[in-house]
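hiii so um. not sure if this is the right channel but i have a protein structure encoded as tokens and i wanna go backwards to a sequence. like what aa goes where. can anyone help
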């Protein structure tokens, strides 16, 4: 039975197979563009950091804020105290676009994560060309050779990487790459169901020197505080912010909680 992830990846692989642009030319262009800021440094300040997401819709929730203004939203996020911004560029499933990311890049000074289903080296170069400071690599979507190739491609054009995992086996693959930023997604990308205990379970195996990000299922300031106390350095939140009439105010209520020691987390 085809899963949500299978369908999304098939579409992205088809797009990649029909992309006849020269990868070397894209590499040269990406390398020539200076990075605006460091995603890692922005998330390393004391207290819980917030990665605020620009997301119009999702497969699980449908339309969230289909006609949002990326410029206005990015500025609200910065005003509210977000440390970084994540921008969905997947069009079919999430309603995003490269134009959304380019608009955000022009509108604020925060480092930007391109959040998409990266399957091809040109996706990496495109992220840098669009104005991203970091790209997302999803371990569940890639085999070891693909993961390594794409990770190294990002490093080669001075693009940081958030490597996303769902369990300890995927975490080990991320650590084997040399990842410095690991995101634990509490949403199963095959079913789109959320397990709010997943982040805590996986966190117990993340070394202290690795920056840990919790993703999905974070709906309230209490959720944010709980994840911070367990030892997460940052959270990535979309729905609660894009659906709010005052995103700056809401972001401020999720930000800055004291980060506790990770040995309090429960390992699998």
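sure thing!! here u go:
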């Amino acid at each position: 039975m085809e899963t949500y992830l299978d369908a999304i990846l098939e579409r992205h692989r088809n797009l990649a197979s029909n992309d006849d642009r020269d990868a070397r030319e894209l590499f040269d262009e990406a390398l020539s563009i200076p990075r605006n800021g460091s995603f890692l440094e922005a998330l390393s300040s004391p207290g819980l950091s917030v990665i605020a997401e620009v997301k119009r819709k999702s497969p699980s929730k449908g339309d969230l804020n289909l006609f949002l203004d990326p410029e206005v939203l990015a500025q609200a996020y910065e005003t509210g105290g977000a440390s970084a911004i994540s921008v969905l560029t997947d069009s079919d499933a999430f309603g995003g676009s490269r134009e959304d990311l380019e608009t955000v890049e022009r509108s604020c000074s925060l480092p930007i994560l391109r959040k998409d289903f990266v399957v091809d080296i040109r996706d990496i170069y495109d992220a840098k060309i669009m104005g991203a400071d970091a790209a997302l690599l999803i371990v569940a979507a890639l085999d070891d050779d693909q993961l390594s190739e794409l990770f190294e491609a990002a490093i080669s054009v001075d693009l940081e990487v958030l490597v996303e995992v769902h369990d300890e086996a995927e975490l080990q693959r991320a650590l084997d790459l040399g990842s410095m930023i690991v995101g634990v997604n509490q949403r199963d990308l095959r079913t789109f169901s959320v397990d709010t205990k997943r982040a805590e379970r996986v966190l117990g195996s993340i070394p202290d020197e690795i920056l840990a990000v919790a993703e999905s299922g974070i709906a309230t300031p209490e959720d944010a505080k709980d994840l911070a106390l367990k030892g997460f350095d940052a959270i990535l939140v979309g729905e609660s912010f894009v659906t709010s009439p005052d995103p700056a105010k809401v972001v401020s209520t999720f930000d800055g909680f004291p980060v506790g020691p990770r040995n309090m987390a429960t390992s699998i």
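oh and Confidence is low (pLDDT under 50) at residues 264-268.
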